[in-house]
Each structure stands twice: as C-alpha cells, then as structure tokens.
Amino acid sequence: MPDWFEKRTFGSLPDEAARRWGDREALCHEGQRWSFTQFQQEVDRTAKGLISLGVQPGDKVSLWVTNRPEWLFCFFAVAKIGAVTVPVNTRFRTDDLEYVVRQSDSTTLIIVDRSGPVDYLEMVRQLCPEIESGNPNDLRPQKFPELQRVLVLGESQYTGTRNWDEVMRDAGSVSDDDLERRQQQVDPDGTAMIMYTSGTTGFPKGVMHCHNIRRQVGDIASRMGITPRDVSLMYLPLFHVFGLVGGTLLFLESGARMVLTTVFDPQEVLRLIQQEKATLIYGFDTHANALLGHPDIATTDLSSLRTGILAAGMASSEPTARQAQQLLCPTVSLWGMTEVGGAGALGFLDSPVDDRCLTSGFPLPGLEYKVINPEIGETVPRAPKASCVCEATA
Questions:
Q1: Residues 274 and 202 both lie in one domain
Q2: Judging by beta carbons within 10 Å of its beta carbon (0-12, 13-18, 19+), is residue 1 exposed, middle or buried?
C-alpha cells in the first residue's frame, strides 16, 4: 500500500522554508533576528562543521544546550547529515547526564559552558576527568567509551574540548556538494532523534522517532490555522517534546515567525507579547497561572493573541483554563506524550469553552483511540449516546 502522506526529512525543512519565505523574518532571540534564508545558511554551516569533525550517519549527538538559536541550528544540521539528535534535559545533573549519554551511545556531546549559576562544563569534567588530558578529537572516556568529542558553546577555549566557533570555522573545508550527498542519503523512515522520557516511575526511556513526525506537525498547523502571518512566542524548553514540536518544527513547517526566549519569565513574556505582536502562545496551567497572576497583565496589550495550546483536561487545570479564555485568548486543549512524538489529540478553534477547559482535544488525522480495562485487558465499549440513555431511563 502506498503511503497516505508525503515523507519528508527534518533536514529538508529549512531548505523548503527558505524557498517559500526567503527574506521574511523567521526567528528572533534576545534582539537578534534571522530570515528564513539566513536560518537555512546557519543550519548548513553547522552541518558542514559536524561533517568536518567526522560525525557519521547514524551517530548519536547529545544536545545539552539551553534555549538559544544554536539549539535549533544543531537539531536540523544533525538531521540533515543523517545523524541522530539526543535532546538532553538542561535540568539534569551529573547522574542523569551519565545515564543518557551512555545509554544512547552518543559519539558527540554538545553543551553550553554555563547558563546563569549552572556550570554545565564542570559537570562534564566530573564525569569525564580524562577530558583534561585526552585527545579532544577522540576522547573515549571510561564512562562513555563511544564518546569521541565534546563541543562547547562559550567564549573561551577549554582543555580537551572543541570550541564551537572553531568548529564553525572548519565548516569551510566541506563543500556544498559534500553536504548535498549526505542529505540525499537520509531515509525519512530512519531514526532522527531519541527523546528521553521524564522517568517518573523508573529510569527514563529513550524513545526513537523518525522524520515522519513532520506529518503530525503539519496536522497541528492545519487544525490551528497557523499561517506565515502568525507570531509564535516560544518559552517552553526545546529539549521537551512540547517545545520541540510547537517551537523547533512548527515555525518552519508553517512559516510563522518564532520569538524564542531562554527561559520562561512571565514579565518578559508579557512584554514580548506586546512588543512582537505575538499571536500564539503555548504551555501548561503553571505557565498560564504565572501570566494571569502577574501584575503587568492589567497594563499589557494582549490584543494580538489569536489562540494558543493550553494542555488542560484535568480537574486541577479547569479554573486556570477558564480564566485564560477570559484574560488571555481562546485556547485549544491538547494531549500528548514523548512516546507519540508530541500531540495525539488537539482541540479545534471553534470548540466550546467546556471542551477547551475540560477535555484534552480530539484525535489528529490518522489516529484512533480505544480505552482498555487494565484488569482484564479488554477494550471498554463505547458509551451509548445521550439520547439513547434518556429514552431508556424514561
């Protein structure tokens, strides 16, 4: 049977977006701005830098970086050359990092040297003391025998690592033809990323996803009516599936401009909504609560907001969801998880308020749901329609 959707790779997304929207603004971060063409050029330069280091198709590249443009460039560059991105939670510390890097057999670890009070490089040094005297091009420390290199985003050059700017300079040694050949070999059905779950009840699970999540992203954009006229404000962490789908993938798939923040700060978010004329916001009830409870909301112009995704559907989130409809914008509800690559259910723009606040949306195209009784393992039959129940009662 032929596929019912066109299979396209993550790596081709920047190319397609540059062809469609060219000089239009694609990304804004802390005052810096990139057009879709400039974004594609940064992705290609990053891809060439990784090739120059020796990153091979199928290699696992762990990305332990806070929200910043380089996270995006790396994600698409790794996909473009047929390697596999392993997004790492930036709230992890040494034990968690050790588990993910070793369990994924990562050959490359990309980190930011520090962010605020958190010294990421020092945690890597604690795990890999060999970094002080090892070959920065072939480390292979005792705890991570597959790990060949650590790339550091930072202003300084650190012993045993490769500096990001240095790697980008080496990108010039790789030709456009070399990059094109690597990209043409990428299989859309091949593994593109390994996302680790939160590990609530045990060790995190490495969930393997191929490039076909793009179909789901397109379905989300369609259901929400997202177009190049939209401006998406993204403060969710990009390592998380919500931020990855709603931020990393959705803006290139739809042509919407993305305003990226390093962290979630309600005062800054409200300022950016007004300044950048944001039309789309995302988050959980914790984000909505922080925005709704901030004193600046009373003096902020929120008229540009068109809609957003608020992961509601629980009794605890209902009061916040109802207040959000009144003070922020009409939202759509969502259900998703790492294992399904983001959203499995999503509401509609014209859903009634109760659906926005009390449910988790409706299945996306191509998906079916069933409820299973965990005690007997059998499917729970559908509930009768309300009209039938009333007749039977009468």
A1: no
A2: exposed
pLDDT confidence of 198, banded at 50, 70, 90?
Answer: confident
* Domain co-membership, 144 together with 291: no
Q: Residues with Cβ < 8 Å from 353, sequence gap 6 or more?
A: 322, 325
* pLDDT higher than threshold 50 for residue 206: yes
Q: Buried (b) or exposed (e) across 318-337, using 16+ Cβ within 10 A?
A: eebbbbbeeebbbbbbbbbe
Residue where a domain stops, chosen among 206, 231, 249: 206
Rg of the Cα atoms in the chain: 22
With 90 as the cut, is the pLDDT of residue 315 above it? no
Q: What's the confidence (pLDDT) of residue 3?
A: 67
Tokens 């996302």 belong to residue: 195
Total number of domains in the chain: 2
**Nearest to residue 150, comparing CAs of 240, 88, 64, 82?**
64
3-state DSSP assignment of residue 179:
helix
Q: Do 158 and 274 belong to one domain? A: no
Q: Tell me whether residue 164 is in a domain.
A: yes
pLDDT for 386 beyond 50? no
The answer to whether residue 218 is domain-embedded is no
pLDDT tens, 32-83? 999 999 999 999 999 999 999 999 999 999 999 999 999 999 999 999 999 9
Q: Is 231 inside a domain boundary?
A: no
State the Cα–Cα distance between residues 35 and 58, nearest whole angstrom.
30
Structure-derived torsion over alpha carbons of residues 354, 360, 362, 365, reported in degrees to the nearest 10:
150
Is-contact 260 247, C-beta < 8 A?
yes
Burial of 302 (0-12, 13-18, 19+ CB in 10 A): middle
CA–CA separation, 99 vs 82, rounded Å? 24
Residue 291 lies in a domain: yes
Examine the fold and report which residue of 188, 206, 224 is the final residue of a domain before the chain moves on: 206
- Cα–Cα nearest to 333, from 348, 350, 315: 348
Quote the domain boundaries for residue 34. Answer: 10-206
Q: Can you give the pLDDT at residue 387? A: 43
Q: What CATH number is attached to the domain comprising 360?
A: 3.40.50.980
Do residues 179 and 33 both lie within one domain? yes
- 10 Å Cβ neighbour count for 85? 27
Expressed in angstroms, the distance from the first to the final Cα of the chain is: 49
